Amino acid sequence: MAVEIRPAQKNDAVHVAALMDIAGHGIESAFWAANASADGSAFEGARQRIIEDRSLPYHLSRALMLDVDGEVAGTLIGGPVPPGAEAPPGFPDYFAPLLALEAHAAEHWAVIGLAVYPEYRGRGFARLLLHHAETLARRSGSVGVSLVVEDDNERALALYRSAGFAEQERRRWLPYGNRTGPAYWLLLSRPI
What stretches of 117-154 adopt beta strand conformation (E)? Predict the structure, then answer.
């Protein structure tokens, strides 16, 4: 089995959109649908923004793709959080707690999105991507790795806790679309 982690290319934008939406349990697609043009698909709009809008936390320049035997299996999206970082403008209110937590992890390498397609799960690929985030954090001079997760995402929480992540802060989760969801967003981090 050939496994490779590589920088995202323009033709990966559709995978970045799908995997980012999987990682966020639909929060991205709710945002994309609300911002779709009258004559276009929300998904196509998202794909274009991922390619063109460098202000997006999940712009192609921040995405790495996990390939297994030449097929895209997952993604890791993130980067260093500078001191004094603030939540980017232009996102709906339901993003506010999530973005505030991400901005709160100054000097960490923030995992904005980590997702593996269902058919590749249970084979250690998410752990491999998490380990790669730690390597990138060391290279960038970050003090640790951080990520935000919903409090009811038990499978992800088990992975992160087994990798040494601990809760630092929590913020109330706000509903979006038709989702009533969990109670909190959790900021987890791990020093390196």
Answer: 144-150
